Amino acid sequence: MRLSTLTKVAAVVAAVVLTATACGEQAELGGSTGDGPAVAEDATFEAGTTMARLNEAGALRVGTKFDQPLFGLRGLDGNPVGFDVEIAKIIAAKLGIPPEGITFTETPSRIREDVIANDQVDIVAATYTINDARKERISFAGPYYVAGQDLMVAADNTTITGPDALRAANARVCSVTGSTPAKTIEQYVDPANIVLFDVYTACADALRNGQVDAVTTDNVILLGLIDSSQGAFKLVDAPFTEEPYGIGITKGDVAFCEFINTTLTEAVADGSYAAAWESTVGGVQPEVPELPTADACS
């Protein structure tokens, strides 16, 4: 599944700031926009399952990003907002957990497997690309969305037209430590020209200050940064990968994986998946994506 051309940013991301909080900070918050999906009042689950434990506790711990407009960003009121946040709320609702029962923890790319393996969160919804290396430590439900890696450059840059132009331009490229885009860009850029930070807002600052020539990550994340740049940046619009976003969970929890996959399918049928998209990414990319076919749980 390839995203349609993403060239026009049509609306402003509401009530957001581009500052990330310290790694590991938690916010016990009600989630993001709107009333959210209906909470299952009579949810029951087989004893001993993760679903039964979470339902009984009435609480869900979610790792997400706090620095990525449209998917996971801490807003002016302190609440995280974005599509990943809304997906977490859909899962919580099916567990019988209301928004106020969700604890969101900032989870940068480099620690996503750690917070799952160390039982600091129950799920990670954080623009989390499914790949084999990560599956060695954790399991994934989904995918629930497929993005594509692209490049963001200064609005007046005409030299960088795609990844193949980077080496010839001796371009300095910024990405985030521990991310799939940071690994992928190594085949297009000399190692000395790769700059890594913990969060993408730091990359945006480096691009604005002329410290780097491009920022690379998934195109929808870049669109959020572009939308907040007041015309300073643009998307090269030459995607060169497919990035399936999954929900990270404890390794080997097949029952929980299957529950999440069923929940996502039901969210499409009842309209809550579309509502989640429209209230977040829909401001800049109105077309609601199709839910990808779920991978086998293992």
Q: How would you describe this protein?
A:
- The chain is an alpha/beta fold.
- Helices cover 26% and strands 21% of the residues.
- The chain has 2 domains: 26-146 and 244-283, D-Maltodextrin-Binding Protein, domain 2, CATH 3.40.190; 149-235, D-Maltodextrin-Binding Protein, domain 2 (3-Layer(aba) Sandwich).
- It is built from 9 helices and 14 strands.
- The longest helix is centred in the last third of the chain and has 17 residues, at 254-270.
Give me a quick take on this structure:
With 298 residues, the protein is an alpha/beta fold.
List keywords for this structure.
298 residues; alpha/beta; D-Maltodextrin-Binding Protein, domain 2; 2 domains; 5-stranded mixed β-sheet; 4-stranded mixed β-sheet; 26% helix; 21% strand; elongated; disordered N terminus; Bact_solute-bind_prot3; Solute-binding_3/MltF_N; transport; SBP_3_CS; Glutamate ABC transporter substrate-binding protein
Largest sheet, order of strands side by side?
A: 11-10-12-9-13
Our count of helices gives 9
Query: Terminal Cα separation, in Å?
Result: 23 Å
Under CATH, the homologous superfamily of the largest domain reads Periplasmic binding protein-like II
Mean pLDDT: 89
Which series of helices and strands comes N to C?
Answer: EHEEEEHEHEHEEEHEHEHEEHH
The number of strands is 14
CATH class of the largest domain: Alpha Beta
Mind describing the biggest β-sheet? Answer: 5 strands, mixed
Radius of gyration: 18 Å
Uncertain runs with pLDDT below 50, 5 residues or more?
1-34
Beta-strand content: 15-25%
Multimerization status: single chain
Shape field: elongated
Q: Per CATH, which architecture of the largest domain?
A: 3-Layer(aba) Sandwich
Helical fraction equals: 25-40%
Fill in the CATH topology of the largest domain. D-Maltodextrin-Binding Protein, domain 2
The assigned structural class equals alpha/beta
The figure for the number of domains is: 2
